[in-house]
Amino acid sequence: MALVGPAMDRERRINAARAFHALAPEDRREALALARRGRRHPDERVAVVAWWYAAATLQPTWWNKVPPVVLPAAGIVLVVLAFWWDSWPLALVALLLVLAGGVAWWQRAMSEPLLALGMRPVEDGDRPAGGGAAQA
Fold first, then answer.
1. Where is the chain membrane-spanning (predicted)?
2. pLDDT per position in the chain (136 positions), as tens?
3. DSSP 124
């Protein structure tokens, strides 16, 4: 089963996405890179915004529980059928399924490490080299 976040209403999901996109691109990249290594961003504000964005992205809905390989696999099957039946509309649907599967996979790959960290407190290993508290 895929990792999913807590259920959130539409307004909260929109606010989480806006807050994440308002962060500096360097902070977003750094938060993701640290999360992939199992570490939280040292700036508490960036860490919390990134976690809420991941939670908003990975809502407990059926499409976030489906394995990411399903859409591209269905697209590949439809491509074979499109060539078999000589149907370009079916090939277009297959292309859309493969693209949607790629986007879903990328989104999940970006969000799962952030969500897996949870809302735990900042640990000493997550702090900047100076060892001081994260500045707001």
1. 46-63, 69-85, 90-107
2. 467 788 888 999 999 999 999 999 999 999 999 999 999 999 999 999 999 999 998 887 777 777 878 988 999 999 999 999 999 999 999 999 999 888 888 888 899 999 888 765 455 554 444 444 444 3
3. G
| Non-local CB neighbours of 11 within 8 Å, separated by 6+ positions | none
Helix/strand/coil for 122: coil
What distances in angstroms separate CA 115 from CA 13, 71, 90, one per listed residue?
14, 23, 36
Query: Token digits for 108?
Result: 């999940």
Token representation of residue 7: 């259920």
Residue 41: what are its φ and ψ, rounded to 5°? -60, 140
The upper half-sphere exposure of residue 4, i.e. CA atoms within 13 Å in the direction of its Cβ, equals: 14
Going from N- to C-terminal start, the domains of the chain cover 10-122
Q: Do residues 109 and 24 touch, judged by C-beta distance below 8 A?
A: no
* Residue for token pair 């700036």: 43
